[in-house]
Amino acid sequence: MAASGSLIYRQSGWTRMTHWVWAVSLFFLLLSGLQIFNAFPKLVWGKEAGFEYDNAFLEIGAQDVDGARQGYLDLFGTRYDTTGWLGLQGDTVQAFPAAVTIPSTRNLAFGRIVHFFFAWILVGTLAIWAVASVVNGHLRRDLVPNGADLRKLPGDIADHARLRFHHTRQYNVLQKLAYGGVLFVAFPLIILTGLCMSPGFNAMAPWLLDVFGGRQSARTIHFLTMAALVAFFVVHMLMILAAGPLNELRSIITGWYRIDPEPTPAKEDAQ
């Protein structure tokens, strides 16, 4: 049996706390967001949308085909039959099924309350994390890739493709890029596009609507960013399972992480 490496304290309390708050917040944001999407199950680019316009590039709904009702996903003008899971579930015409929305009944007002509540929790914990990470050095030490990290990128991609994982004190370059993308791109983007859909914030900062090309464009970016976060979550879970779930979970729950043992130096040849 291979020797085990030592346990090191890898994740600070601030990192662990904000990680779990984000996980809970994003869960409720996703499911309440699908409730909100069901009220207008289209994605539109531009400043105009509504019953008088047919400019959606994605739409989920139901239609009659040969006397039978059928759910569909319309993507860039091509319609796909999604009966039973999108657009039509049993006799219910609804973009996303009740099983994946909060609340499970059609209640846009309550869905918005849940969405806004957890959105502000996300914003608050992101601010706390940013301050703590600057103070304790987590940001500089663990998340900003340097030149040496980037030179290791091709080898790191090859190792991950072969499911060869190295358990070290530092994050590898793919982790830095992935976590940095979530924290410095996806989170700010989803927050700013969310603010774009607030009439009160529009009155205070109308220039932000111009940055994102209008409220409908901001809504589309908001939805697609959440879809990217869901994809990140799936890959994140798969990597945890492949790299050793007990070690990874211990790290994010207790802060302690077992690293690979140091290589044994080769003995010099006898003279």
Task: Reconstruct the topology from this structure.
Elements: E1 7-9, H1 13-39, E2 42-44, E3 56-65, E4 68-75, E5 78-81, E6 87-89, E7 92-94, H2 108-136, H3 138-143, H4 147-151, H5 153-161, H6 173-196, H7 199-204, H8 207-211, H9 215-243, H10 245-254, E8 256-258
Antiparallel strand pairs: 1-8, 2-3, 3-4, 4-5, 6-7
Helix pairs in contact: 1-2, 6-9, 9-10
Word description of this protein:
The chain has 271 residues and is of the alpha+beta class. The protein has 2 domains: 7-41 and 101-258, Fumarate Reductase Cytochrome B subunit (Up-down Bundle), CATH 1.20.950.20; 42-94, no CATH class. It has 10 helices and 8 strands. The chain has helices at residues 13-39, 108-136, 138-143, 147-151, 153-161, 173-196, 199-204, 207-211, 215-243, 245-254, and strands at residues 7-9, 42-44, 56-65, 68-75, 78-81, 87-89, 92-94, 256-258. It has a 4-stranded antiparallel beta sheet. Strand 4 and strand 5 form a beta hairpin. Helix 9 (215-243) crosses helix 10 (245-254). It is globular, with a radius of gyration of 23 Å.
